TrEMBL record:
PROSITE patterns: AP_NUCLEASE_F1_1 (PS00726), AP_NUCLEASE_F1_4 (PS51435)
UniProt: Mg(2+) binding residues: 7, 34, 147, 149, 247-248
Cofactor binding remark: Probably binds two magnesium or manganese ions per subunit.
Coiled coil: none
Keywords on record: Hydrolase, Magnesium, Manganese, Metal-binding
Family: Belongs to the DNA repair enzymes AP/ExoA family.
Positions of the catalytic residues: 106, 147 (proton donor/acceptor), 248 (proton acceptor)
Any one GO MF annotation of this record: double-stranded DNA 3'-5' DNA exonuclease activity
Protein name: Exodeoxyribonuclease III
Length: 256
């Protein structure tokens, strides 16, 4: 099973790029983030013609998450992250596909920090940790994939001080990510590539993609039941170099 995560940064605007990538890479399951589309505006028909079933939680202008599956049924188990009944931002969807529980996450960016947006991010990550712990206790083979908006370590960002005040690199977010790993989740990209940068995001500004001035903020975490089945992992970096691209590239894993 090949599972990928891709912050598509507007699913309708980037649809040609998305469809081309799906055709060439043929992932079995895809987690999409930042749809920037209301529920009724999601391109279900075009993706269906490409061979993918879809379940999604849209949101006008911002946010939005989706799970795609090729040749498999999607059984949705959650459409929101538990822990705050008043949170109406579309940032989480969870489903069973082919015997694996897939959680698609789009964590808050948190900028500017300090401030209410950063406070919301930390509260959201705390809720994610709590729910992730329950998933582990269930014993289900599970993957948490998506845009965590956290650069886990200094090795996950190009050499620079220009991001030092950004919410993506703050110690509180890094601590929340580290807590997930301490629970027992495995960082699949780092399992396969312990030392390489493996960037997944390059800002549109200052030729950062061309200079490979990237960050790793898109992650695939595996439960202990799946960790032994991990075969390969990587980043489809070339997708970021296409015309009118997302500022992210898809990250992927294969499970035996």
């Amino acid at each position: 099973m090949k599972i990928a995560t891709f912050n598509v940064n507007n699913v309708n605007k980037r649809l040609p790029n998305l469809l081309a990538w799906l055709k060439s890479s043929k992932p079995d399951v895809v987690c999409l983030q930042e749809l920037k589309a209301a529920q009724s505006e999601f391109p279900e028909g075009a993706l269906g013609k490409a061979g993918y079933a879809a379940e999604w939680v849209g949101q006008k202008t911002w946010n939005g998450v989706a799970i795609l599956a090729r040749k498999s049924e999607i059984v949705v188990t959650r459409r929101s992250l538990p822990g705050d009944a008043n949170d109406n931002q579309s940032r989480y969807i969870e489903a069973a596909i082919g015997g694996v529980l897939i959680a698609c996450v789009y964590a808050p960016n948190g900028n500017p920090q300090p401030g209410p947006k950063f406070d919301y991010k930390l509260a959201w990550l705390k809720r994610l940790n709590a729910h992730a712990g329950k998933l582990l206790k269930s014993g289900a083979p599970a993957v948490i994939a998506g845009d965590f908006n956290v650069v886990p370590t200094p090795n996950d960002i190009y050499p620079t001080k220009s991001w030092d005040k950004d919410a993506l690199v703050q110690p509180e977010g890094r601590a929340a990510f580290a807590k997930l790993l301490k629970q027992g989740w495995a960082d699949a990209l780092r399992e396969c590539h312990p030392d390489e940068p493996m960037y997944t995001f390059w800002s549109y500004w200052r030729n950062r993609f061309e200079r490979d001035a990237g960050l790793r903020i898109d992650h695939l975490l595996l439960s202990p039941a799946l960790r032994p089945h991990l075969q390969k992992a990587g980043v489809y970096r070339a997708v970021r170099g296409k015309p009118d691209p997302s500022d992210h590239a898809p990250a992927w894993i294969t499970l035996k």
